[in-house]
Amino acid sequence: MSDVSNQAKPQIYLDHAATTPVDPIVLERMIPYFGSTFGNPSSWHGYGRAALHAVDAARDKIASLIGAKPAEIYFTSCGTESDNWALRGAVRQSNKPVKHIVTTAIEHPAILDTCSDLEKQGVEVTYVGVDNSGIVSVDAIKEAIKSNTAIVSVMTANNEIGSIQPIAEIGDYCRDEGIYFHTDAVQAAESENLNVNDLNVDMLSLSAHKFHGPKGIGILYIRSGVKLGRIITGGHQERGQRAGTTNTPLIVGMAEALAIAVEKREEYVMRISKLRDYFIDRALSEVPYSRLNGGRIKRLPNNANLSFEYIEGESLLMMLDNKGIAVSSGSACASGSLEPSHVILALKVPPEIAHGSVRFSLGRDTKKEEIDYVIDALKASVERLRVISPLFNVEKGTGHYV
Ligand SMILES: *Cc1c(COP(=O)(O)O)cnc(C)c1O
Q1: Which fold has domain 24-261?
Q2: Which of 194, 237, 266, 319 has a CA between 20 and 30 Å from the CA of residue 258?
């Protein structure tokens, strides 16, 4: 498979951190709830009861999969809403005159943009940095906590570089200090232990479309006793805490998707981490001036984020897309602007090299032949881009930044 250009264009999806396809079993489980079992779970008649029965079963299943009680599971529209609710709710319930949030510099925009919005309303936010592996230190979090801290929010695993954070240790400290602790676990569902008691969390966000469930449905786990109040007002759904007609089909699908993810976890982690390591090893040894962003341990098994010096990540993304390969440069939200990713910059990678970063996120069904094809395409594309790059001298085989 060395001559990529003479082959029919394949379709290789290496952007599972952005979203995943719905598992066919999940789709099948959802279909009846778009059709015959369409009732509103809040209705008192038989149609409603049938739908409510399915929602209750899904809630029970999800609760048992993460070690929670069913009454601690709240259905939301997405991971972004769950993150908003955790932060905005915790800040609002705090009785301190000036409220303070501790978070990290590498959170998803669902957290960071919410924090900056809250800052405009007078809330103080401390953004704790990370080491060059993209991991936050427990001590740095402890030092950032103040007497007016309303909530600490640290993601379980990063969406761009896959770094896995010391959640259980941070949670242990927050519990002793009596401070609410939230984790955005949206990227972690397929590979990490999500048991809320092992993680010592008070709140945890999930989103179904990141683990082969449907888009538009998420979870906020809220430990009993934690008071957040409502951010979406209206009807009495979700025990009066989150209004809006209950989305039966998507909830049923999400529960099924989470059950499958947990069931396949061990096998998935073993297979995908090996394949990912194979990809990283080949890319680093076969593509000159390439580097891995983030560390090799405490990293999601499907994530490889690489920088290719003297070229732009966006140009490489387009070239790979041309060859039928779907990847991402930085986060979806960072692309579209020319700012390098805040996550890669937080690793102290120089901005010019951060510009050449590309995220490859493998999935449950990624095959070795696909990785081999991607390596060939990558080598050819990087070489081609360097030929036209003003920063690279092909004769000398080296480049320099101006
Ligand atoms: C995708 C993602 C979100 C947002 O979830 P949506 O359901 O798409 O709103 C939040 N946090 C992380 C870490 C994510 O990867």
Answers
A1: Aspartate Aminotransferase; domain 2 (3.40.640)
A2: 237
Nearest-CA residue for ligand 1 atom 5 is 79
Which class is 12-21+264-399 in CATH? alpha beta
Tokens of 39: 């009732």
Q: How confident is the model at residue 4 (pLDDT cuts 50, 70, 90)?
A: low
Mean pLDDT (whole number) for 80-109: 97
Spacing, Cα 208 to ligand 1 middle (Å): 10
DSSP per position, 98-115: S-EEEEETT--HHHHHHH
pLDDT tens column, 298-325: 999 999 999 999 999 999 999 999 999 9
In the residue annotation, 333 being an active-site residue is answered as yes
Segments making up each domain of the chain, as ranges: 12-21+264-399, 24-261
Tokens describing residue 273: 């981490």
Neighbours of 142 (CB within 10 A): 16
Among 84, 183, 187, which is best to mutate for testing ligand 1, by the most ligand atoms less than 8 A from CB? 187
Give residue 142's identity as a one-letter amino acid code. K
For 141, counting Cβ atoms within 10 Å of its Cβ (0-12 exposed, 13-18 middle, 19+ buried), the class is buried
Taking only the tens place, the pLDDT of each residue in 115-140 is 999 999 999 999 999 999 999 999 99
- The SS3 assignment for 399 reads strand
Question: How far apart, in whole angstroms, are the C-alpha atoms of residue 231 and residue 233?
Answer: 6
H-helix or E-strand containing 314?
helix 313-322
What does the pLDDT look like over 48-91, one tens digit per residue?
A: 999 999 999 999 999 999 999 999 999 999 999 999 999 999 99
One-letter-per-residue 3-state SS of 127-151: EECCCCCCCCCHHHHHHHCCCCEEE
CA distances from 113 to 15, 80, 118 (A): 23, 10, 9
Q: Is residue 168 classed exposed, middle or buried when 0-12, 13-18 and 19+ CB atoms within 10 A define those classes?
A: middle
What is the phi-psi region of residue 362: left when phi exceeds 0, alpha when psi lies from -120 to 50, beta otherwise?
beta
